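Researcher: Please generate the 3D structure of the following complex. Treat every line as part of one assembly.
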Amino acid sequence: MSTDELYQRHIQPLLIVISGPSGVGKDTIARAVIDERPDSFYFVVTATTRPPRAGEVHGVDYYFVSNDEFARMIDENELLEYAVVYNDFKGIPKQHIREALASGKDVIMRVDVQGAATIRKLIPNAIHVFLTTESEEELVTRLTKRKSETPEDLNLRIATARQEMKRIQEFDYWVVNRASQHEEAVQHILSIIDAAHCRVVQAPIVL
Amino acid sequence: MSTDELYQRHIQPLLIVISGPSGVGKDTIARAVIDERPDSFYFVVTATTRPPRAGEVHGVDYYFVSNDEFARMIDENELLEYAVVYNDFKGIPKQHIREALASGKDVIMRVDVQGAATIRKLIPNAIHVFLTTESEEELVTRLTKRKSETPEDLNLRIATARQEMKRIQEFDYWVVNRASQHEEAVQHILSIIDAAHCRVVQAPIVL
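Model: Done. Output below.
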């Protein structure tokens, strides 16, 4: 294939999965990446049964749904994947991913580590980024500071996060989200996306 | 492997091969990439028997050597690879690559398409970037403008460049060096390098 043919070929939109342990800052970083190039990225909003945290907006950060509504979505096979995360359900409505891919933009999803593993099986050509802290200790500090959980919930969350940290090898890329240096992590993710668009072999995303 | 173990692991320097057809601007772009982060990159200087072009400095842009000296380097197995490019010899002294890799910096090489194919066999973990123009026509225009060749040399160079353009599929990445927009190509290459450092699986460069 000549470069002239390459130019004529449709450049594939990418599907980027931003994952990592609870407390690492997935929401903040995914949002900041999109804010850098709002016209280039499509953010897939996850449905969850957990209550909103301060400042979170329905339909923007998450779809906050009742347990009954979530059960209905499961029953009607409307979710790409779902998981119980610390007693709350989280899942990705298929319809949103289809809309996202149809937009022609790069699609960004913020998914917990369990969900990322499921997506890897369903959509092999997605790019998986593992967001991490500079150390496990720092992660525990961040989870402890959040104070939105009961002590029991917090202990469960810390134990789970430690397990999640060990799953980094399942991912394509890892990016450190240093405390108070979000911009660095955002730039690394933008580089990963930019580089992926420069690959000679571009695999289409099929759902 | 946990992230803590990953941090402790030595982050491998990369070997980046910037290649592409004659006239595409490999020299300019490779230099501009290095100028962006001179402390992070090590530039491997190629030996050549062709005479210097205006502004080219011995030991910085190329090692300009006589045919006899080049023949000696071949005889004494001092070159990683060498090729005849438009009646001139070009080759990469092994010693320079060893020094480059020992520096701990990312190593950048500017190599013609033939040389890149040889390096791919010798050093499988190198990252190969194919620099191209926005069209074959633009490449011909640039070669014609250069006016440093005889008409016969120019025709040979154009024919070869057209063949080289077809070899893009051998490369990992492709980057368009648009006329008067070098900065864009430089930024793409910096993204490719940045992303490669974020890969979870990092393969060592062995020579």
